[in-house]
Amino acid sequence: MSRPLSHDLDIRARRLLRTLIAQYLADGEPVGSRTLSRSSGLDVSPATIRNIMADLEDAGLVASPHTSAGRVPTPRGLRLFVDSLIELQPLPVEEMARLQRELPAGPTNTRDLLGNVSSLLSAMTHFAGVVTVPRQVDFPLRHIDFVALPDARVLVILVFSDNQVQNRVIQLAKPLEPAELEQAANYLNAHFAGLRLDDIRAHLLRELREASSELNRMMSSAVELAAASFAPQSDSDDVLVSGQTNLMGYAELANLERLRELFEAFQKKNELLQLMEVCARAPGVRLFIGEESGFAALDGCSVVTATYGTQGRVLGAVGVIGPTRMAYERVIPVVQATAGVLSDALNRAATAL
Question: Mind telling me which NCBIfam families this protein's record contains (predicted)?
Answer without folding.
Answer: hrcA
